[in-house]
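Continuing the batch. This is chain 6 of the set; chains 1 through 5 are on the previous pages. Same settings as before, nothing changed between runs. Recording input and output for traceability.
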Amino acid sequence: MSATLEALSAGGQVGAVLPLLTAVVQRPAWSAKYKKIVAVVAALVAGVFAMAADGGWAQFQHGQLTAATLLGVLAASQTSYDLVWKPSKLAPMIESLTTKITAKQAE
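Output for chain 6:
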């Protein structure tokens, strides 16, 4: 398999589960725009770590592989959220479960 396909594969695998990890940080009360910003930043950070884990830090010298991995994570995370995690209600449930309820909200 070519290096570009391996980079896309690694990015896709990370991106497929990333929405569940992002849901731990996000809150139901946040606006859709803010949630999208958090998701994109998380995808870029996860893409950097996926690249480093897959090929080491030296792999960042190759612009095409870097872009393929980052875009793979971003595309897979957005797609898996829209097609799997949001309709299954799992990601929104994780958001709700990890949100602390203050005394004022409980009243």
